[in-house]
């Protein structure tokens, strides 16, 4: 059985912008991914609301994605593949980060995964780096994410460059899904379906062949 770890934030956890609760097991993109892959795969959900790449959140706390990443990899190993989709929470105005610096935070996480022994037979697992889609109209989050729109449009460019330089697979989610106009950040149910199916295609390709 192939083991897939999905490491991300509230959009991997499954935050529903309509109900403000968590999507059920039939709706979250990670569960869609598992169903699309079939019984030969195990999908492990590791999404945390508010998770950043490498930054400590002075208000929310315990959100640093780097701090938990190694324990997470160790907990779930051996892993065949890790999907990584973070960066949206780094857009919060309190961090004052550019799109370039957010992407460099992602690079740190890619490096951690690639240098780990969390894969099969003590090797590193394969990695699919996913650029989050741009934010849309920020309703109640407008002040918290002031300036996020223009920065988030650059994610696909910077993330793709990092994937190329680090030698991992890449998925530009903006070509598959859009953020909900209800809050500008989270994915509605239909987008979870599309994302899960798109990731499944990439995962199957990567697990059949180790080429990037």
- Fraction of residues in β-strands: 5-15%
Amino- and carboxy-terminal Cα gap = 21 Å
Q: Give the C-level CATH assignment.
A: Alpha Beta
CATH architecture: 3-Layer(aba) Sandwich
Q: List the strand order in the largest sheet.
A: 2-1-3-4-5
> Can you give the helix content as a percent range?
25-40%
Q: Within the CATH hierarchy, at the fold level, what is the topology? A: Rossmann fold
Domain count: the total is 1
Number of strand segments: 5
The secondary-structure class comes to: alpha/beta
Question: What is the approximate shape?
Answer: globular
Average pLDDT, to the nearest integer? 96
CATH superfamily: SGNH hydrolase
Main sheet properties: 5 strands, parallel
Order of helices and strands: EHHEHEHEHHEH
List unreliable stretches of 5+ residues: none
> Helical region count?
7
Gyration radius, in Å: 16 Å
Structural description of this entry:
- By secondary structure, the chain is an alpha/beta fold.
- The protein has one domain: SGNH hydrolase (Rossmann fold, 3-Layer(aba) Sandwich), CATH 3.40.50.1110.
- It has helices at 10-13, 29-37, 65-76, 99-114, 148-152, 155-166, 189-208, and strands spanning 2-8, 41-47, 81-85, 126-131, 169-172.
- The chain has a five-stranded parallel sheet with strand order 2-1-3-4-5, with helices on both faces.
- α2 (29-37) packs across α7 and α3 (65-76) runs parallel beside α4.
Describe, in short, the structure shown.
This protein is of the alpha/beta class and 212 residues long.
């Amino acid at each position: 059985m192939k083991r897939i770890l999905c490491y991300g934030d509230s959009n991997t956890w499954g935050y529903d912008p309509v109900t403000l609760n968590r999507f059920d097991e039939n709706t979250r993109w990670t569960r869609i991914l598992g169903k699309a892959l079939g019984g030969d795969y195990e999908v492990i959900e590791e999404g945390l609301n508010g998770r950043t790449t490498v930054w400590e959140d002075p208000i929310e706390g315990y959100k640093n994605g780097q701090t938990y990443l190694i324990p997470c990899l160790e907990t779930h190993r051996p892993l065949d593949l890790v999907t990584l989709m973070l960066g949206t929470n780094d857009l919060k105005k309190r961090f004052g980060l550019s799109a370039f610096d957010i992407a460099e935070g992602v690079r740190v996480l890619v490096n951690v995964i690639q240098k780990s022994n969390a894969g099969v037979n003590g090797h590193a697992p394969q990695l699919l780096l996913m650029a989050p889609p741009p934010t849309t109209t920020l309703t109640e989050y407008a002040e918290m994410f002031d300036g996020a729109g223009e920065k988030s449009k650059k994610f696909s460019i910077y993330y793709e460059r990092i994937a190329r330089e680090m030698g991992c697979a890449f998925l530009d989610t903006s070509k598959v899904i859009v953020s909900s106009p209800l809050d500008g950040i989270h994915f509605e149910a239909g987008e979870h379906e599309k994302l899960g199916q798109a990731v499944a295609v990439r995962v199957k390709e990567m697990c059949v062949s180790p080429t990037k």
